[in-house]
Write the structure tokens for this entry.
Amino acid sequence: MTDPNTPHRPEKVPTPAGGGINPETSMMEPATGTTTTTEQKSYSQNQLVLRRFLRHKGAMASMIVLVFVTILAISSIGVGPIPGWWDKDYTRAANVINGGSPTLSLFPFTLGEHPFGQDSTGKDYFALVMRGTQISLLIAFVVGLLSTVIGTIIGGLAGFYRGWVESVLMRLTDLVIVIPLLVLAAVLGKIAASWGVWGLALMLALVTWTGLARLVRGEVLSLREREFVASARAIGTGSRRIIFKHILPNTVGVIIVSATLSIASAILLETALSFLGFGVRPPDVSLGSLISQYQNAFTTRPWLFWWPGLFILAIALTVNFIGDGLRDAFDPRQNRNKD
Amino acid sequence: MTKFILRRMGISFLVLLGGSLLLFVLTINSGDPIEDLRESNADNRDYLIRQRTAYMGLDQPWYSRYWEWLTGAAKCVTLNCDLGTNRNGVEVTSLLGNAASSTLRLVVLATVLAIVIGITVGILTAIRQYSGFDYVVTFLAFLFFSLPVFWAAVLLKEYGAIRFNDWIVEPTFTPLQILVTAGLLGIAVQAVMGGDLKRRALTAGATLVFVGAVMYYFSAVEWFRRPAFGAVLILVVGVAAAVGITALLAGLKNRKVMWSALTTVGAGLAVYFAFLPVLREPTWLSLLAILALVVVLGAVSGWFWGGYSRRLAMGVSVAVGVVMAFLIVVDRAVAGWMGLLSLKSRPISTIGSQTPNFTGDFWESFLDKGVQIILPTIVLTLVSVASYTRYTRSSMLEVLEQDYVRTARSKGLSERVVIVKHAFRNALIPITTIVAFDFAGLIGGAIITEQVFGWKGMGELFQTGLKTVDPAPVMAFFLVTGTAAVLMNLAADLAYAGLDPRIRR
């Protein structure tokens, strides 16, 4: 089954940033021992990460698609009082033209009157989907940001102070984890029903921080035993400075990657909740509630079903790819680009 | 070890208790339980309100309602559950029985499939890192991971059920379909097997010819309407499995294991013929007894053939026994397929976990439940397979870089031994955590899946409970899922101890 000719190890690159003795390099270059090898231009840690990220083709393509979707959603129907370039409104019913079928065509590219078609009451579906995308993106980013902040604070406190603080916070985390995520989110989403979109986002953030809290705690636990923290402590550095200057910068990779991935899971969670009827409520629309509303129209008006789903998929997929690119960029061991 | 597990259990129990309190309080505060009655114009409105108040205990403070639920749930220890009544006065315990059985059937099947497929594919992608196969699987994993489950489920209903039912009326393949399917499979198989250009071409060609011939044959005899499996196929597949499992776990040079595995195949066939009359009309009990017999015979044959590698021989033979048991079930189920088609001309219905008022013999109702579970299982499995594949891949890659793997290679061990014994076993340790952790997520996913496929499972129980601000069904849901999650964590702890001897101390 396996072919002995192919090497199974990834092409491992000596990491200029990593400390200690790298066994591969020390074997190849017995004279130097430590790994300050390259004679070319040297980069700081941040520059290295950025360079690795910018070279990740999947992440870059995803970035372009995500930015495009975001700009499309915001600019087309506008935000609040600011009008967009699309002349139809997502709330206004109209005459159904040609059974409401979509007028979008790619060759030659024309949008037509109703590019994504119309629903049964003649509302312009392009405007509806754009509104849904706005709401879903808004919730996803707010949830991603808030849950990252909560998770970092709780995980950081637990890992740094140990003792009873850790016990209390980690038992709290266990408590939230033991209830299935969707169940807890549904209950909180129902409570937040009258608070609108921002309330829903807040509630979702309150249930999605647990994974990051555990990750950050683990990171902090190992970092606080490292020599540089011990020496900082030995010269009398205060806790606050140690946390913000020595520990947090070293966990930033984990946090950013996790935040990105939590945006992707937030959009899936929100659309699932809206689909079940515990998320975004009418008159507001999200991509999930659109699918829920039109799922039985699949045989007669398939476009009502396809578009919102494709937009969810596109957003979640691109965000996941960006997260993967960031992970590769922050983790030099995973890296295969030579730089 | 016992102390460690007991301590873990104790903590899990306390967390479960806290979680139940949290969920209870949140649920009863999520809305107004008598909102619909307040707005109703019925003549007996006051009576209805009083009745619901009595059923739900709305006149009591929240802590006494919670206490009542807790003491009722505590009776489950003596198998005498009292989970209260829902707002219409129906005993939740009786509702839960059916709901839990169909949901757990779905979730357990999905978990098992996801573990098997996810870990296998994960290892293959790790071994073939940065190959075309690896990139395709990685992309698919990301795709499935980002897939909105409810959306995929509706798509599957259309293409998996309705189109399949149209097709089964006249189940033939066009030459183009045969060519495309066989071609795609050929490309996939050569990508997994690897090797130089000649070997790849040979693999692809052989796969293409084989698959094409099989599909042509199936199409010609209308196999999908009048399928047959039979003893010969059991024998062939059984022997292939025996050789394959032996080659993977023990190496073909280990003749003792090889003979033991082949003996198990023979024993399985003997059992199949001896019990054929029973197998035609079994009950669940007799079927399980027969299947257990096959597995036990495998263990016995391993014991006698094993010699110096007795443990290994028993393990391999038990695995082969499981395969044989599975093949026997497949054979009987396939034999019942025509019966199912005559009872149900459109076999996969898009709604429900089984056909209501279904009158068929054992195998026909087995098949009925079987085809109904296929689509929800696929939906549930996709997401988990994606994450297990990724985790297994990265875990394997990390292990393959370790010094002990280099040592194993440098002392001349074969690649099979290095991967199966040295790398895979260690790579499994982190995966165990993920799988145990993911189980609760799968139950959450089952809520959506059940909604789309119209199952009357626990998801439905939870959803209606929450919509009507009725804590009893919600808490029953939590009791089952919470207990299942705790049990899965326990299983993970035991698996840890099995995989890593340092923990056993």
